[in-house]
Amino acid sequence: MRSVFKWAIVFVFICMLLTAGGLVGLYVYLSQDLPKINTLEDYQPATVSYVYSDDGRKIGEFYKERRVVIPLSDMPDNLINAFVAAEDSRFREHPGIDILSIFRAFVKNFQAGTITQGGSTITQQVTKSFLLTPERTYERKLKEAVLAYRIEKKFTKDQILYLYLNQIYLGHGAYGVESAAENYFGKHARELSLAECAMLAGLPQAPSRYSPFQFPERAKQRQIYTLNRMKEEGMISNMDVTKAIDMPLDIKPRKNWFIERVPFYTEHVRRYVEKKYGADALYNQGLQIHTAVNIEFQKMGRSAVQQGLLDLDRRMGYRGPSGQIPLSQIEAFCTQEAKKIPENLLTSGDIHTAVVLNVDDRNKKTEVRVGNFSGIIRLETMTWARRPNSKTAYYESKISAPSQVLKPGDIIQVQVASVPQDKDAYEFTLFQEPVAQAALLSIEAETGHVKAMIGGRDYSDSQFNRAYQSRRQPGSAFKPIVYAAALDKGYTPATVIMDSPVVYEDAQRDFTWKPQNYAETFYGPTLFREALVHSRNVVTIKILQDIGISYIIDYARKLGITSDISQDLSIALGSSGVSLLELVNAYAVFSNLGYFIEPVFITKIFDRHGNLLETSGLVRKKVIDMSTAYIMTHILESVVTSGTGKRVKALKRPVAGKTGTTNNLYDAWFLGYTPRYTTGVWVGLDQGGSLGKGETGSRTASPIWLDYMQQALEGKPIRTFTVPDGVVFAKIDAKTGLLPINESKNTVFECFKEGTVPTEYTPKPGAVTGTDDLFKQEF
């Protein structure tokens, strides 16, 4: 017996040696290509880059993985405990591997004949997330165990939790608990309640399956499971569980900061940062990008653009119903539409699809149905709905009966005008989405900070930025550049130029050009000031011809025009396409008394560690004389008080500006400034085409400018334009531009550069002028 017992002991010892040797060999084999865990010491995961407004509010995010890294101290104990209880209750006790959990998973997988369950500890999940591929094999599982053991030896439990809770994916693009807290509850992780903590802790196993957005009942069951596990582990009481289960959760779909705030502006910033710093820095390195945009100004601009385009669209006419259905299908159609109405409620201002039930010319109304709701459209709200005709002005054609526009069965868009008490007599207005587009850009005078940039009607429909990317003919909005250049070539506001027919021939292209004024008439001797105030085409062309095309192009470059400019006389009328930003820059030079200030979109950029990468300084360069800039402002003030910009007088502040309208009414502009802000507006059709008879810069663009500026300047004290040294005022004859005499019928105070005040007096009535004067007049 002793011999058998001895051999048994030897056999067991040999088996133990073999087993140990096998384990050592397996360990050596697995360790050959294991990744180094030292990389975890410098934890810098992909994280969100934020964009902020001028007052520090968040307006945009850029990321590949939406992760916000926070220290463990910013996570409430309930949050940490909830994840530990749900994912690895023995986390504080095991050395990185929980043999009991692994054995339980092994049995389950053996019974199923495939890998259906893991036994991973939190440390193993960190290993899998940071160091290994997600493949489900036993070899990978063994490597995971080895690495988890090494991690436990090198890092504290809190360090491991820090890595885990910042790295884990929790659904809907959220990586880490801070991002998930913002995603689901709209708050920081440190502000989470016990109920919210338990909800998040239930997500790691299957974030999509337990999504609180898509599957709230499943998410609730996981929350209850987590709460019960916390109670079993002694982390919370029965009372805590009951309160948390009963607490209603306000699950909030995460805001799309990019779309909801200032999308055109933020996209412009994105392109700049990605070009300068690269995609990895923008999307992974957590940049902090501070911009010059003002959120309130941006809202004002968007509101003004949308209202202006809606008003224009109504002047352009009604394009007709979107469809027609037989009367027998109306009930089925309305049943389907009712499903699209949120909570089956109509709210004032909402847009809905409706079907026409009856057209009543006698009572001047149209009966319509929206889902399960009935209502009327009154004739007085749809007199604008004429058939579109660009050759007929809106005021020349009005609708006198509903039947001229609609018939039963028509599918139309309506806007809720009023919500009645009994919900049976809604009033609607006929609606259609505008087809025209518009852009607005506003710069702060002293700093060059771009406070608002609206690139189009709706960013979700079109991401093309018409304030920056588009190049459109500016029309008469380009003329101030020509007139400013002329002032530096010896012209004065009192210079007289003959407004008379002129013909230009181009033999090479076999082309003859006979420029006309907008009103298709000629006005004879015209003062320089009056020519710009009333936007006289022929006079502007003559001035350009006199001072030279190349000189004008070089002058435009100084003012910030970078787009290609044609080498021909038509540029006097704004024939070369420019961006809205370029024109605003040019007008800002007048506002800033001859100084070009580089426009600022981004004020500062910091890296993820708070190191300053760049900051915007005031880049200010004198490009034209102060006196020239002021005289241009003085003339452009007259454009507003008595010229094509008269609508803007309603601002009731000192304002200078100029309208612009291109051939066939394709583009409408208004560029204007006060001592505080320089703002430009463009309106037109993306595909080209007439906006309609009479839709000039004055009628179409200036109301948008006015609407925005009235809001932007509300409550701010009135400022006046500063008169610089080198400018003097003198009384002149308003007709001749010379010094007045007793017989002068109309005199005005005009501004001049020092040394350029007229020295000649107006000839007495009946006096004969010299041939030199006659020649000057004819020019």
From TrEMBL:
The chain crosses the membrane at residues 7-30. It is a single-pass type II membrane protein. InterPro entries: Beta-lactam/transpept-like, Glyco_trans_51, Glycosyltr_51/Transpeptidase, Lysozyme-like_dom_sf, NA-bd_OB-fold, PBP_transglycosylase, PCB_OB, PCN-bd_Tpept. One of its GO terms (biological process) is cell wall organization. Its main location: membrane. Keywords: Antibiotic resistance, Carboxypeptidase, Cell inner membrane, Cell membrane, Cell shape, Cell wall biogenesis/degradation, Glycosyltransferase, Hydrolase, Membrane, Multifunctional enzyme, Peptidoglycan synthesis, Protease, Signal-anchor, Transferase, Transmembrane, Transmembrane helix. It is found in: Cell inner membrane. The keyword DNA-binding does not apply. Pathway: Cell wall biogenesis; peptidoglycan biosynthesis; Glycan biosynthesis. GO terms for molecular function: nucleic acid binding; penicillin binding; peptidoglycan glycosyltransferase activity; serine-type D-Ala-D-Ala carboxypeptidase activity. Its EC number is 2.4.99.28, 3.4.16.4. It catalyses: Preferential cleavage: (Ac)2-L-Lys-D-Ala-|-D-Ala. Also transpeptidation of peptidyl-alanyl moieties that are N-acyl substituents of D-alanine; [GlcNAc-(1->4)-Mur2Ac(oyl-L-Ala-gamma-D-Glu-L-Lys-D-Ala-D-Ala)](n)-di-trans,octa-cis-undecaprenyl diphosphate + beta-D-GlcNAc-(1->4)-Mur2Ac(oyl-L-Ala-gamma-D-Glu-L-Lys-D-Ala-D-Ala)-di-trans,octa-cis-undecaprenyl diphosphate = [GlcNAc-(1->4)-Mur2Ac(oyl-L-Ala-gamma-D-Glu-L-Lys-D-Ala-D-Ala)](n+1)-di-trans,octa-cis-undecaprenyl diphosphate + di-trans,octa-cis-undecaprenyl diphosphate + H(+). One of its GO terms (cellular component) is outer membrane-bounded periplasmic space. Coiled coil: none annotated. Residues 349-431 form the S1 motif domain. In the C-terminal section; belongs to the transpeptidase family. In the N-terminal section; belongs to the glycosyltransferase 51 family. PANTHER family: BINDING PROTEIN TRANSPEPTIDASE, PUTATIVE-RELATED (PTHR32282), PENICILLIN-BINDING PROTEIN 1A (PTHR32282:SF27). This is Penicillin-binding protein 1A. It comes from Desulfotignum phosphitoxidans DSM 13687.
